[in-house]
């Protein structure tokens, strides 16, 4: 069902009762939650709902595409040397010792978020973030506070940060590890997302029988870099390769034999070139009919930019999005229709590092973006989490200003989607009504109580 249509009765109920929601401190509960992590997100003031049938279909598609990626990786790994693989995915040669090639070929340690666009025909993916550094892990827990403030408890989805913590606990048990390190670049601890400390807290609460250390490039425990200690250490990496200024430290961590989730194999898994690879006919003989149908339905047509096709591609620029193969957080994404031809040519001059993608005509949805609860038409991007091959909730980013819906570069608002059936949504609305009625009765009793 269309996102706007499924949400309409829920949003109508929320906006009609904004004063009561404020009185019950539902918004304040969220703000207190993110304040403890010094997070500076612009939060959508209430959770949104998502059709369970669509959620299940998208979830199945994420797993299918990861299986397709693994099949193609098996071919590429046998076809290319490691150095050639790095060239193929636009990676510098110095990253080679920081990649766990077994992790890449086996599909282990899968921590990912698929970005999803709603359109008239349903939904399509626009990006795969197969990366331990993905943001938004704590949002489900934040919006749970919102609902609990209304007296509503629900168990319709999972917490991504709890799913990550559970997976790390599983790895510790399987390998009989003794030390757990949540590793972040120091700059991430100061940037205002709160991702690192929120995950650290949950891992500490989950792996209670081990000491969990929060470390950055300036204070990683040297004692854990020996082969004896390293072999008993799990390192969860919260550091994008582009931000790493401590490659020697990472080489030492790898040399110690530590288990790292993820290694920089994620730089290959997350490369935007993958959507062009999915549509490349030379790989289709590897795939089943189901896999090919999934690509056709959920992956907008994407192609490699080459010196042979650039002239023809630019003639169609207004219907295309140009994406740099290695870029993050909304950077390296160019809407063809928003750029003059000469400007676009200049920006994509290094053609072989770019792909072009058919523009998805996205539906907008009217959303409240702040505590005024006034509705505004927004472009949205959804983010479906896949952790250890299990789907774990969905975030939403919304912007009423930019066609590039990004928290990092476009100032987008961010929120959470709860998957449910229509009957569960209607029951949720009834629970809000009951909570509001109860609150009004309490207010009346206070008003007329004589002291």
What would you note in describing this structure?
With 451 residues, the chain is an alpha/beta fold. It has one domain. It contains 18 helices and 15 strands. It has helices at residues 3-16, 18-23, 26-35, 52-79, 82-88, 101-106, 139-149, 160-175, 195-206, 227-230, 247-255, 266-269, 274-278, 289-298, 310-315, 341-347, 407-410, 422-448, and strands at residues 48-51, 111-119, 122-130, 179-184, 211-215, 233-238, 259-261, 302-304, 320-324, 333-335, 354-358, 364-368, 375-387, 390-399, 413-420. Strands 1, 2, 3, 12, 13, 14 and 15 form a 7-stranded mixed β-sheet that branches. Strands 5-4-6-7 form a 4-stranded parallel β-sheet, with helices on one face. Strand 9 and strand 10 form a beta hairpin. Helix 1 packs parallel to helix 18 (422-448), helix 4 (52-79) packs across helix 14 (289-298) and helix 8 packs across helix 9 (195-206). The radius of gyration is 23 Å and the shape is globular. The chain starts with a helix and ends with a helix. The model has no long low-confidence stretch (mean pLDDT 93). InterPro entries: GSPS_pre-ATP-grasp-like_dom. It comes from Legionella beliardensis. GO terms for molecular function: ATP binding; ligase activity; metal ion binding. Keywords: ATP-binding, Ligase, Magnesium, Metal-binding, Nucleotide-binding. This is Glutathionylspermidine synthase.
């Amino acid at each position: 069902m269309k996102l706007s249509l499924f949400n309409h009765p829920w949003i109508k109920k929320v906006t009609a009762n904004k004063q009561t929601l404020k009185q019950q401190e539902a918004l304040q509960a969220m703000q207190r939650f993110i304040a403890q992590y010094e997070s500076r997100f612009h939060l959508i003031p209430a959770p949104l709902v998502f059709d369970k049938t669509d959620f299940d279909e998208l979830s199945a598609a994420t797993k299918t595409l990861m299986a397709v990626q693994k099949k193609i990786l098996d071919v590429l790994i046998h076809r290319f040397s490691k150095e050639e693989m790095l060239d193929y995915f636009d990676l510098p040669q110095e990253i080679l010792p920081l990649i766990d090639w077994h992790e890449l070929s086996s599909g282990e340690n899968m921590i990912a978020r698929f970005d999803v666009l709603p359109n008239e025909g349903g939904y399509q993916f626009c990006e795969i973030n197969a990366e331990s550094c993905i943001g938004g892990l704590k949002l489900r827990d934040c919006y749970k506070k919102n609902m609990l403030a209304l007296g509503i408890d629900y168990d319709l989805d999972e917490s991504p940060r709890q799913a990550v913590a559970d997976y790390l606990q599983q790895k510790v048990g399987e390998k009989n590890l003794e030390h757990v390190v949540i590793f972040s670049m120091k700059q991430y601890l100061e940037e205002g997302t709160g991702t690192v400390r929120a995950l650290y807290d949950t891992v500490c609460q989950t792996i209670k029988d081990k000491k969990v250390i929060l470390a950055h490039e300036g204070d990683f425990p040297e004692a854990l870099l020996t082969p004896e200690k390293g072999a008993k250490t799990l390192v969860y990496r919260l550091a994008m390769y582009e931000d790493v200024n401590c490659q020697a430290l990472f080489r030492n961590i790898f040399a110690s034999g530590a288990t790292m989730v993820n290694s920089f194999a994620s730089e290959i898994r997350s490369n935007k070139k993958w959507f062009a690879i999915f549509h490349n006919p030379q790989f289709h003989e590897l795939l089943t009919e189901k896999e090919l149908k999934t690509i056709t339905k959920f992956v907008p047509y994407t192609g490699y930019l080459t010196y042979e096709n650039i002239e023809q591609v630019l003639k169609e620029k207004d219907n295309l999005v140009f994406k740099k193969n290695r870029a993050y957080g909304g950077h390296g994404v160019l809407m063809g229709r928003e750029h003059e031809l000469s400007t676009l040519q200049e920006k994509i001059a290094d053609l072989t590092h770019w792909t072009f993608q058919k523009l998805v005509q996205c539906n907008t949805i009217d959303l409240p973006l702040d505590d005024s609860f006034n509705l505004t038409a927004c472009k949205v991007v959804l983010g479906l989490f896949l952790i250890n091959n299990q789907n774990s909730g969905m975030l939403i980013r919304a912007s009423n200003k930019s066609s590039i819906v990004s928290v990092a570069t476009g100032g987008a608002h961010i929120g959470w989607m709860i998957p449910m059936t229509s009957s569960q949504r209607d029951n949720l609305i009834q629970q809000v009504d009951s909570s509001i009625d109860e609150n009004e009765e309490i207010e009346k009793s206070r008003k007329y109580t004589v002291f």
